[in-house]
Amino acid sequence: MIALVSALNMRKMLRDNVLVRKIVGIETAGSLNILFSDKTGTITKGQLEAVTFVDGEVREYKSCSDVIGEIGKLLSLSIHHNTDAVITGEGRKMKIIGGNATERAILSYAASTSVDLSVAKISSIPFNSANKYSASYIEGEYNLTLIKGAPEKIIDRCRTCYDSDGKVIPLDKREELEKKISSLAERAIRVLAFAVSSQKIEGDVLPDGEWTLVGIIGIRDEVRPESITAIREVQGAGVQVVMITGDRKDTAVAIAKEAGIIQQESDIVLTSEELGKLSDDEVRDKMNSIRVVARALPSDKSRLVRIAQEMNLVVGMTGDGVNDSPALKKADVGFAMGGGTEVAKEAGDIVILDDNFNSIKQAILYGRTIFNSIRKFIIFQLTINVSAVMISFVSPLLGKENPLSIVQILWVNLVMDTLAALAFGGEPALERFMKEKPKRRDENIISRSMRTSIETGGLWTFAMSMVFLMTPLVVPYFRADENAKYLMTGYFTFYIFMAAFNAFNARTDQLNLFDNIGKNHGFWRIILLIIVVQVLMADFGGDVLRCYGLAPKEWVIVTVLAFTIIPVDLIRKLIVGKKEDQE
Length: 583
Prior knowledge:
Largest sheet: 9 strands, mixed
Oligomer: single chain
CATH architecture of the largest domain: Up-down Bundle
């Protein structure tokens, strides 16, 4: 059933940019309690844009072309020769490829202001998410190590900076610079610092000694408008959303507030350093209030997943890099980004093709839809099973042979298994599913409402079967013969018709049995197929199917008695609904 329902929904999910790699992942997605989400490209647009440059004397330049003189040359060198991104083409055909999104944004900022200097890159240290910096050593007209990275990693090592004439002066405006960085962060602009050193790189180690600050570049990534709505809906579904980002704390808080992740004073924001100082028990105590983890390391993701699972929470994790793969594997549902690495996609259960948080919301909705479809199938199937077992057990005790032959039971099996799976597998994804509470890990798949539906339907089918077979209320209306073959034909048809009518009861918990039924065309086709095949069996089955045709009056009795399961279940829904409202 799970395979059929998932297969039927996978095409729909693909249209919503959700590629399911592991079938179990999508069903589990509907039961998430907590979701750890990346920021860049998922909550934000992922279209990074460098918007400002600030030098060591806290002078701000809106455009890279405004930075002239010696400091302009050093900035151009720092951007063009300490990156994995490259420029291809010229003019309107110019494109920036390679590197990560941050490097492409910075190179785009300085693409038109490249300074023609004769230098060559001798060695480099690639960016590392743990160290949060990259560096390159160049020789030629300038013999320098160019360093780029998180401000807290770079500025503390700088004792000097460049003035407007390009002369090295003491870095006296450190406090003003920090205030400027904080001011930019409050506007959701994150910054990267650039520095230079006259010493060479030794292996993968940055040069010793003091560095000279070139300045900081501010980068902006706007929040996706649809992410704000999707986050609100996911939170309304009872899923705690935690944003994990490499940004500094101020920037992360600004974006989290704009996205609706932080809403209350009690919401907790931690940096990787602060998280590392907390014991597992302390993190466990704070887990329900954590909303943002800034300056996060890949190891933080794995730790958070482990602790959340120890709290019996169903955990989702997003990721796109090689370093994210352990956390993606460890999580109950790993959401790999379509623009990420192949390693991350292999580790994930679901691939979000457009890297959009809205698509993660859709995955959760489809997960809940599939789980509800499975529950509907179980109601339908167990109602038939309960009644069939009771009839098969009681009939011999009352001196009657089993009213269903082996071949007829095979048809009943086909109706309640394969055909039912196809009928319920096409149920639409309804937005009201997002208002349900997440399912607990230890929650029984059969809820109280399901149990009452199965018991009511099974007992009513059994009771009506006994009325049909053994009472003068029905028997005299069928043509009499020695083997009661017309009565048995009528009973077989009654049993299948009652199962078909009960499918309408099982497919919705609403009193309106036609609720959104137009969105599941397969349901209509399957029910119609069952009824048509049953009519043909009843009229033309012969000795093989033990069916000998029915007269018009007998068809009316069969149909009316089978239809009684609909009002009976409607009464049950009214009673159960009132009890749930009182609770």
